[in-house]
Amino acid sequence: MSGPSPTPAHEPTRHRVLRAARQALRVLAVELGTPTEPGTPLFGSVQNPWLRRLPYLVAFGFAVSLLPTTITILSHDYGLDGGLAGALATAQTAPLLLAVTRPLQAWWVIFTADILCALALTGADGVAGRAWPWPPMVIVGYLALMVALSLRERSRTLIAVWLTTGVAGILFEPRTPDRSVGTWVLLFVLTGVVLMMGATLRERGDAQRKLIEQETISEAERARRTLLEERTRIARELHDVVAHHMSVITVQADSAPYRLSGLPREAEEEFGSIAATARESLAEMRRLLGVLRSEESERHGGPEKTPQPGIGMLPKLVEGTVRAGVPVELSLPGDRAPLEPAVDLSAYRIVQEALANVVRHAPGARTRVSVTTAADGSRLTVLVVNSPPPAPSAPLETTGTGHGLVGMRERVRLVDGSLDTGPLPDGGFRVAAQLPLSPPPAPAASLSPKDSGSV
User: pLDDT value at position 75?
Assistant: First the structure.
Protein backbone atom coordinates (compact mmCIF):
# COMPACT_ATOMS: atom_id res chain seq x y z
CA MET A 1 0.00 0.00 0.00
CA SER A 2 1.47 3.26 -1.05
CA GLY A 3 2.17 6.04 1.44
CA PRO A 4 0.11 9.23 1.62
CA SER A 5 0.69 11.62 -1.22
CA PRO A 6 1.64 15.24 -0.43
CA THR A 7 -1.34 17.46 0.10
CA PRO A 8 -1.96 20.20 -2.46
CA ALA A 9 -1.28 22.83 0.22
CA HIS A 10 2.32 21.64 0.69
CA GLU A 11 3.25 21.77 -2.99
CA PRO A 12 2.56 25.48 -3.59
CA THR A 13 4.41 26.40 -0.36
CA ARG A 14 7.50 24.48 -1.47
CA HIS A 15 7.31 26.13 -4.86
CA ARG A 16 7.00 29.56 -3.31
CA VAL A 17 10.04 28.92 -1.12
CA LEU A 18 12.10 27.71 -4.09
CA ARG A 19 10.97 30.64 -6.21
CA ALA A 20 11.85 33.10 -3.43
CA ALA A 21 15.25 31.44 -3.00
CA ARG A 22 15.99 31.61 -6.73
CA GLN A 23 14.93 35.25 -6.82
CA ALA A 24 17.15 36.05 -3.82
CA LEU A 25 20.11 34.35 -5.48
CA ARG A 26 19.44 36.23 -8.70
CA VAL A 27 19.33 39.56 -6.87
CA LEU A 28 22.49 38.61 -4.96
CA ALA A 29 24.30 37.79 -8.20
CA VAL A 30 23.19 41.03 -9.82
CA GLU A 31 24.31 43.14 -6.86
CA LEU A 32 27.66 41.39 -6.59
CA GLY A 33 28.24 41.65 -10.32
CA THR A 34 27.25 45.27 -10.92
CA PRO A 35 29.85 47.73 -9.61
CA THR A 36 29.11 51.41 -9.07
CA GLU A 37 31.23 53.85 -11.10
CA PRO A 38 33.99 51.37 -12.05
CA GLY A 39 37.31 53.06 -12.70
CA THR A 40 36.59 56.21 -10.71
CA PRO A 41 39.19 56.58 -7.93
CA LEU A 42 38.16 57.08 -4.33
CA PHE A 43 38.40 60.77 -3.39
CA GLY A 44 38.70 61.51 -7.11
CA SER A 45 36.52 64.62 -6.84
CA VAL A 46 38.50 66.16 -3.97
CA GLN A 47 40.30 69.40 -4.83
CA ASN A 48 43.32 68.79 -2.61
CA PRO A 49 45.90 66.72 -4.57
CA TRP A 50 47.27 65.10 -1.39
CA LEU A 51 43.83 63.84 -0.40
CA ARG A 52 43.35 62.43 -3.91
CA ARG A 53 46.57 60.41 -3.49
CA LEU A 54 45.71 59.25 0.02
CA PRO A 55 43.72 56.10 -1.02
CA TYR A 56 46.63 54.93 -3.16
CA LEU A 57 49.11 55.44 -0.32
CA VAL A 58 46.90 53.59 2.18
CA ALA A 59 46.29 50.70 -0.22
CA PHE A 60 49.99 50.46 -1.03
CA GLY A 61 50.86 50.46 2.68
CA PHE A 62 48.43 47.62 3.41
CA ALA A 63 49.59 45.55 0.44
CA VAL A 64 53.31 45.98 1.18
CA SER A 65 52.92 45.19 4.88
CA LEU A 66 50.46 42.28 4.56
CA LEU A 67 52.16 40.42 1.69
CA PRO A 68 55.34 39.30 3.49
CA THR A 69 53.45 38.84 6.77
CA THR A 70 50.90 36.56 5.13
CA ILE A 71 53.56 34.48 3.38
CA THR A 72 55.51 34.06 6.63
CA ILE A 73 52.50 33.08 8.74
CA LEU A 74 51.03 30.69 6.18
CA SER A 75 54.33 28.89 5.55
CA HIS A 76 55.95 28.91 9.00
CA ASP A 77 53.00 28.90 11.41
CA TYR A 78 50.36 27.00 9.45
CA GLY A 79 52.81 24.74 7.61
CA LEU A 80 51.69 25.45 4.04
CA ASP A 81 54.02 24.87 1.10
CA GLY A 82 56.08 28.00 0.36
CA GLY A 83 54.96 28.31 -3.24
CA LEU A 84 51.30 27.87 -2.36
CA ALA A 85 51.61 30.31 0.52
CA GLY A 86 53.19 32.91 -1.80
CA ALA A 87 50.48 32.50 -4.44
CA LEU A 88 47.64 32.76 -1.90
CA ALA A 89 49.23 35.72 -0.14
CA THR A 90 49.68 37.58 -3.42
CA ALA A 91 46.04 36.97 -4.40
CA GLN A 92 44.88 38.13 -0.96
CA THR A 93 46.88 41.36 -0.76
CA ALA A 94 47.79 42.64 -4.24
CA PRO A 95 44.14 43.36 -5.24
CA LEU A 96 44.02 45.95 -2.45
CA LEU A 97 45.68 48.29 -4.97
CA LEU A 98 42.78 47.61 -7.35
CA ALA A 99 40.29 48.47 -4.61
CA VAL A 100 41.06 52.18 -5.02
CA THR A 101 39.29 52.26 -8.40
CA ARG A 102 37.36 48.95 -8.58
CA PRO A 103 36.62 47.71 -5.04
CA LEU A 104 33.92 45.20 -6.05
CA GLN A 105 36.19 43.47 -8.55
CA ALA A 106 38.95 43.44 -5.93
CA TRP A 107 36.53 41.81 -3.49
CA TRP A 108 35.83 38.97 -5.91
CA VAL A 109 39.56 38.22 -6.21
CA ILE A 110 40.35 38.53 -2.49
CA PHE A 111 37.24 36.64 -1.34
CA THR A 112 38.00 33.77 -3.74
CA ALA A 113 41.60 33.69 -2.52
CA ASP A 114 40.40 33.65 1.11
CA ILE A 115 38.10 30.69 0.37
CA LEU A 116 40.94 28.77 -1.30
CA CYS A 117 43.22 29.60 1.60
CA ALA A 118 40.69 28.26 4.11
CA LEU A 119 40.36 25.04 2.09
CA ALA A 120 44.15 24.69 1.87
CA LEU A 121 44.50 25.18 5.63
CA THR A 122 42.01 22.39 6.31
CA GLY A 123 44.71 19.76 5.81
CA ALA A 124 47.65 21.79 7.14
CA ASP A 125 49.59 20.55 10.14
CA GLY A 126 49.78 23.88 11.99
CA VAL A 127 46.08 24.70 12.18
CA ALA A 128 45.63 23.24 15.69
CA GLY A 129 45.37 26.05 18.22
CA ARG A 130 45.29 28.72 15.49
CA ALA A 131 42.60 30.86 13.83
CA TRP A 132 40.53 29.25 11.08
CA PRO A 133 39.03 29.70 8.46
CA TRP A 134 40.22 33.30 8.47
CA PRO A 135 43.76 33.88 9.81
CA PRO A 136 44.46 37.28 11.46
CA MET A 137 46.20 38.80 8.43
CA VAL A 138 43.25 37.75 6.23
CA ILE A 139 40.87 39.55 8.60
CA VAL A 140 42.96 42.73 8.50
CA GLY A 141 43.16 42.77 4.71
CA TYR A 142 39.47 41.94 4.34
CA LEU A 143 38.41 44.77 6.66
CA ALA A 144 40.62 47.22 4.75
CA LEU A 145 38.85 46.09 1.59
CA MET A 146 35.47 46.64 3.28
CA VAL A 147 36.36 50.28 3.93
CA ALA A 148 37.00 50.90 0.23
CA LEU A 149 33.90 48.92 -0.70
CA SER A 150 31.62 50.84 1.68
CA LEU A 151 32.81 54.21 0.36
CA ARG A 152 31.90 53.32 -3.21
CA GLU A 153 29.14 50.71 -3.57
CA ARG A 154 25.42 51.08 -2.87
CA SER A 155 23.77 49.68 0.25
CA ARG A 156 22.26 46.61 -1.42
CA THR A 157 25.67 45.56 -2.70
CA LEU A 158 27.16 45.97 0.79
CA ILE A 159 24.42 43.82 2.28
CA ALA A 160 25.06 41.15 -0.37
CA VAL A 161 28.80 41.16 0.44
CA TRP A 162 28.11 40.93 4.16
CA LEU A 163 25.65 38.04 3.76
CA THR A 164 28.02 36.20 1.41
CA THR A 165 30.78 36.51 3.99
CA GLY A 166 28.50 35.08 6.66
CA VAL A 167 27.25 32.23 4.48
CA ALA A 168 30.84 31.25 3.62
CA GLY A 169 31.68 31.06 7.32
CA ILE A 170 28.59 28.96 8.07
CA LEU A 171 29.44 26.52 5.28
CA PHE A 172 32.96 26.14 6.68
CA GLU A 173 31.68 25.42 10.19
CA PRO A 174 31.17 21.63 9.70
CA ARG A 175 34.73 21.34 8.33
CA THR A 176 36.38 23.05 11.31
CA PRO A 177 39.69 21.26 12.11
CA ASP A 178 40.21 19.90 15.63
CA ARG A 179 41.42 22.35 18.29
CA SER A 180 41.31 25.31 15.86
CA VAL A 181 39.93 28.73 16.83
CA GLY A 182 36.86 29.64 14.80
CA THR A 183 36.98 33.18 13.42
CA TRP A 184 34.06 33.31 11.00
CA VAL A 185 31.72 34.94 13.53
CA LEU A 186 34.35 37.55 14.34
CA LEU A 187 34.86 38.44 10.68
CA PHE A 188 31.13 38.46 10.05
CA VAL A 189 30.49 40.92 12.89
CA LEU A 190 33.47 43.15 12.11
CA THR A 191 32.57 43.22 8.42
CA GLY A 192 29.04 44.40 9.26
CA VAL A 193 30.34 47.11 11.57
CA VAL A 194 32.89 48.43 9.05
CA LEU A 195 30.40 48.36 6.18
CA MET A 196 27.78 50.18 8.24
CA MET A 197 30.22 52.86 9.39
CA GLY A 198 31.61 53.38 5.89
CA ALA A 199 28.15 53.57 4.33
CA THR A 200 27.09 56.11 6.97
CA LEU A 201 30.11 58.28 6.23
CA ARG A 202 29.50 58.02 2.49
CA GLU A 203 25.82 58.97 2.82
CA ARG A 204 26.73 61.88 5.05
CA GLY A 205 29.27 63.11 2.50
CA ASP A 206 26.71 62.76 -0.29
CA ALA A 207 24.19 64.73 1.76
CA GLN A 208 26.72 67.50 2.39
CA ARG A 209 27.62 67.69 -1.30
CA LYS A 210 23.95 67.92 -2.26
CA LEU A 211 23.43 70.61 0.36
CA ILE A 212 26.34 72.62 -1.05
CA GLU A 213 24.94 72.20 -4.56
CA GLN A 214 21.52 73.37 -3.39
CA GLU A 215 23.07 76.36 -1.63
CA THR A 216 24.95 77.25 -4.81
CA ILE A 217 21.76 76.95 -6.85
CA SER A 218 19.84 79.00 -4.27
CA GLU A 219 22.51 81.70 -4.33
CA ALA A 220 22.35 81.86 -8.13
CA GLU A 221 18.56 81.99 -8.03
CA ARG A 222 18.69 84.72 -5.38
CA ALA A 223 21.06 86.79 -7.52
CA ARG A 224 18.85 86.27 -10.55
CA ARG A 225 15.75 87.25 -8.58
CA THR A 226 17.51 90.37 -7.33
CA LEU A 227 18.43 91.31 -10.89
CA LEU A 228 14.89 90.72 -12.17
CA GLU A 229 13.37 92.71 -9.32
CA GLU A 230 15.64 95.65 -10.04
CA ARG A 231 14.92 95.47 -13.75
CA THR A 232 11.21 95.40 -12.96
CA ARG A 233 11.57 98.47 -10.80
CA ILE A 234 13.46 100.31 -13.53
CA ALA A 235 10.88 99.25 -16.10
CA ARG A 236 8.08 100.63 -13.94
CA GLU A 237 9.85 103.96 -13.62
CA LEU A 238 10.55 104.11 -17.34
CA HIS A 239 6.91 103.29 -17.95
CA ASP A 240 5.95 106.42 -16.05
CA VAL A 241 8.48 108.57 -17.93
CA VAL A 242 7.57 107.27 -21.38
CA ALA A 243 3.84 107.38 -20.62
CA HIS A 244 4.14 111.06 -19.72
CA HIS A 245 5.87 111.95 -22.98
CA MET A 246 3.50 109.84 -25.07
CA SER A 247 0.56 111.59 -23.42
CA VAL A 248 2.09 114.98 -24.26
CA ILE A 249 2.53 113.93 -27.89
CA THR A 250 -1.10 112.80 -28.05
CA VAL A 251 -2.43 116.05 -26.60
CA GLN A 252 -0.25 118.20 -28.85
CA ALA A 253 -1.23 116.28 -31.97
CA ASP A 254 -4.93 116.43 -31.08
CA SER A 255 -4.89 120.15 -30.30
CA ALA A 256 -2.68 121.22 -33.22
CA PRO A 257 -5.56 121.89 -35.64
CA TYR A 258 -7.18 124.19 -33.05
CA ARG A 259 -4.00 125.98 -32.01
CA LEU A 260 -2.64 126.53 -35.51
CA SER A 261 -4.98 128.25 -37.94
CA GLY A 262 -4.85 127.80 -41.66
CA LEU A 263 -3.50 124.26 -41.67
CA PRO A 264 -4.04 122.32 -44.90
CA ARG A 265 -6.37 119.37 -44.73
CA GLU A 266 -3.44 116.98 -45.33
CA ALA A 267 -1.66 118.41 -42.25
CA GLU A 268 -4.75 118.01 -40.09
CA GLU A 269 -5.05 114.39 -41.19
CA GLU A 270 -1.34 113.88 -40.48
CA PHE A 271 -1.74 115.27 -36.96
CA GLY A 272 -4.78 113.02 -36.44
CA SER A 273 -2.76 110.01 -37.57
CA ILE A 274 0.06 110.97 -35.17
CA ALA A 275 -2.40 111.26 -32.28
CA ALA A 276 -4.01 107.92 -33.09
CA THR A 277 -0.64 106.20 -33.35
CA ALA A 278 0.49 107.74 -30.06
CA ARG A 279 -2.69 106.61 -28.29
CA GLU A 280 -2.33 103.11 -29.70
CA SER A 281 1.35 102.92 -28.65
CA LEU A 282 0.51 104.22 -25.19
CA ALA A 283 -2.24 101.64 -24.74
CA GLU A 284 0.03 98.83 -25.95
CA MET A 285 2.85 99.93 -23.65
CA ARG A 286 0.49 100.03 -20.68
CA ARG A 287 -0.76 96.54 -21.47
CA LEU A 288 2.79 95.15 -21.71
CA LEU A 289 4.46 97.01 -18.86
CA GLY A 290 1.48 97.28 -16.54
CA VAL A 291 2.02 93.67 -15.46
CA LEU A 292 5.34 94.70 -13.97
CA ARG A 293 3.61 96.58 -11.19
CA SER A 294 3.19 94.65 -8.00
CA GLU A 295 -0.23 93.46 -6.89
CA GLU A 296 0.08 95.56 -3.77
CA SER A 297 0.58 98.79 -5.73
CA GLU A 298 -2.40 97.92 -7.94
CA ARG A 299 -4.59 97.33 -4.87
CA HIS A 300 -3.56 100.71 -3.48
CA GLY A 301 -4.66 102.72 -6.47
CA GLY A 302 -2.72 101.46 -9.48
CA PRO A 303 0.21 103.29 -11.10
CA GLU A 304 2.02 105.96 -9.16
CA LYS A 305 1.19 109.54 -10.03
CA THR A 306 4.26 111.15 -8.41
CA PRO A 307 6.74 112.65 -10.90
CA GLN A 308 10.02 110.81 -11.14
CA PRO A 309 12.93 112.48 -9.27
CA GLY A 310 16.11 113.87 -10.81
CA ILE A 311 19.32 115.56 -9.76
CA GLY A 312 17.31 118.68 -8.94
CA MET A 313 15.99 116.81 -5.89
CA LEU A 314 19.45 115.79 -4.64
CA PRO A 315 19.66 118.66 -2.10
CA LYS A 316 16.49 117.37 -0.43
CA LEU A 317 17.89 113.82 -0.46
CA VAL A 318 21.18 114.98 1.08
CA GLU A 319 19.30 116.93 3.72
CA GLY A 320 17.47 113.80 4.81
CA THR A 321 20.72 111.85 4.91
CA VAL A 322 22.35 114.50 7.11
CA ARG A 323 19.43 114.23 9.53
CA ALA A 324 20.15 110.48 9.66
CA GLY A 325 23.60 111.27 11.11
CA VAL A 326 25.80 111.12 7.99
CA PRO A 327 27.69 114.35 7.18
CA VAL A 328 27.34 114.82 3.40
CA GLU A 329 28.82 117.45 1.11
CA LEU A 330 26.99 118.00 -2.19
CA SER A 331 28.46 119.53 -5.31
CA LEU A 332 26.22 120.14 -8.34
CA PRO A 333 27.06 121.75 -11.70
CA GLY A 334 26.41 125.51 -11.77
CA ASP A 335 24.84 125.59 -15.20
CA ARG A 336 22.46 122.65 -15.33
CA ALA A 337 21.19 121.91 -18.79
CA PRO A 338 18.02 119.82 -19.15
CA LEU A 339 18.83 116.12 -19.03
CA GLU A 340 17.12 113.19 -20.63
CA PRO A 341 14.60 111.68 -18.16
CA ALA A 342 16.37 108.31 -18.06
CA VAL A 343 19.77 109.89 -17.32
CA ASP A 344 18.29 112.30 -14.77
CA LEU A 345 16.47 109.50 -12.96
CA SER A 346 19.47 107.13 -13.09
CA ALA A 347 21.78 109.78 -11.58
CA TYR A 348 19.36 110.40 -8.72
CA ARG A 349 18.85 106.68 -7.99
CA ILE A 350 22.61 106.00 -7.99
CA VAL A 351 23.20 108.75 -5.42
CA GLN A 352 20.19 107.58 -3.41
CA GLU A 353 21.39 103.98 -3.23
CA ALA A 354 24.99 104.99 -2.49
CA LEU A 355 23.89 107.18 0.44
CA ALA A 356 21.61 104.41 1.70
CA ASN A 357 24.59 102.04 1.72
CA VAL A 358 26.62 104.57 3.71
CA VAL A 359 23.84 104.87 6.29
CA ARG A 360 23.58 101.07 6.61
CA HIS A 361 27.21 100.00 6.46
CA ALA A 362 29.24 103.08 7.49
CA PRO A 363 27.07 105.24 9.78
CA GLY A 364 28.62 108.59 10.60
CA ALA A 365 31.20 108.42 7.78
CA ARG A 366 31.96 111.69 5.99
CA THR A 367 30.60 111.49 2.44
CA ARG A 368 31.10 113.63 -0.63
CA VAL A 369 28.58 113.67 -3.50
CA SER A 370 29.68 115.26 -6.75
CA VAL A 371 27.70 115.59 -9.97
CA THR A 372 29.65 117.17 -12.83
CA THR A 373 29.20 117.59 -16.55
CA ALA A 374 32.07 117.14 -18.97
CA ALA A 375 33.39 120.25 -20.72
CA ASP A 376 32.17 119.00 -24.08
CA GLY A 377 28.77 118.09 -22.64
CA SER A 378 29.16 114.43 -23.64
CA ARG A 379 28.75 112.78 -20.24
CA LEU A 380 27.56 113.26 -16.69
CA THR A 381 29.82 112.06 -13.86
CA VAL A 382 28.26 110.97 -10.56
CA LEU A 383 30.76 110.42 -7.74
CA VAL A 384 29.95 109.32 -4.19
CA VAL A 385 32.92 108.78 -1.86
CA ASN A 386 32.73 108.07 1.85
CA SER A 387 35.53 107.87 4.41
CA PRO A 388 35.84 105.07 6.97
CA PRO A 389 33.17 105.24 9.71
CA PRO A 390 34.14 106.56 13.13
CA ALA A 391 35.79 103.96 15.36
CA PRO A 392 33.03 103.62 18.00
CA SER A 393 30.25 103.17 15.45
CA ALA A 394 29.15 99.77 14.23
CA PRO A 395 27.40 99.04 10.92
CA LEU A 396 23.65 98.73 11.10
CA GLU A 397 23.86 95.76 8.72
CA THR A 398 26.72 93.30 8.34
CA THR A 399 25.27 91.61 5.27
CA GLY A 400 23.37 92.98 2.32
CA THR A 401 20.86 91.68 -0.19
CA GLY A 402 22.92 92.79 -3.18
CA HIS A 403 20.10 94.93 -4.58
CA GLY A 404 22.10 98.17 -4.35
CA LEU A 405 25.02 97.45 -6.65
CA VAL A 406 22.83 95.38 -8.97
CA GLY A 407 20.43 98.31 -9.31
CA MET A 408 23.26 100.74 -10.02
CA ARG A 409 24.69 98.48 -12.72
CA GLU A 410 21.31 98.02 -14.36
CA ARG A 411 20.61 101.75 -14.41
CA VAL A 412 24.02 102.54 -15.88
CA ARG A 413 23.60 99.74 -18.40
CA LEU A 414 20.21 101.20 -19.37
CA VAL A 415 21.78 104.45 -20.61
CA ASP A 416 24.97 102.81 -22.01
CA GLY A 417 27.16 104.23 -19.25
CA SER A 418 29.87 102.79 -17.02
CA LEU A 419 30.09 102.12 -13.28
CA ASP A 420 33.13 101.74 -11.04
CA THR A 421 32.64 100.69 -7.42
CA GLY A 422 34.97 99.35 -4.78
CA PRO A 423 36.66 99.91 -1.42
CA LEU A 424 39.36 102.54 -0.94
CA PRO A 425 42.79 101.91 0.64
CA ASP A 426 41.86 103.92 3.74
CA GLY A 427 38.75 101.82 4.39
CA GLY A 428 36.18 103.98 2.64
CA PHE A 429 34.11 103.21 -0.43
CA ARG A 430 33.76 104.78 -3.86
CA VAL A 431 30.94 104.81 -6.39
CA ALA A 432 31.64 106.47 -9.74
CA ALA A 433 29.21 106.44 -12.67
CA GLN A 434 29.68 107.85 -16.16
CA LEU A 435 26.35 108.57 -17.87
CA PRO A 436 26.51 109.65 -21.53
CA LEU A 437 24.53 112.71 -22.57
CA SER A 438 22.92 112.98 -25.98
CA PRO A 439 24.17 115.90 -28.06
CA PRO A 440 21.65 118.69 -28.64
CA PRO A 441 19.51 118.11 -31.71
CA ALA A 442 20.75 119.80 -34.86
CA PRO A 443 18.48 122.45 -36.42
CA ALA A 444 16.09 120.83 -38.84
CA ALA A 445 16.86 121.61 -42.47
CA SER A 446 14.07 122.76 -44.70
CA LEU A 447 12.56 119.92 -46.65
CA SER A 448 12.12 120.17 -50.35
CA PRO A 449 8.78 119.21 -51.87
CA LYS A 450 10.35 115.99 -53.09
CA ASP A 451 11.54 115.11 -49.58
CA SER A 452 8.15 115.99 -48.11
CA GLY A 453 6.43 113.66 -50.46
CA SER A 454 8.71 110.78 -49.58
CA VAL A 455 7.88 110.90 -45.85
Answer: 92
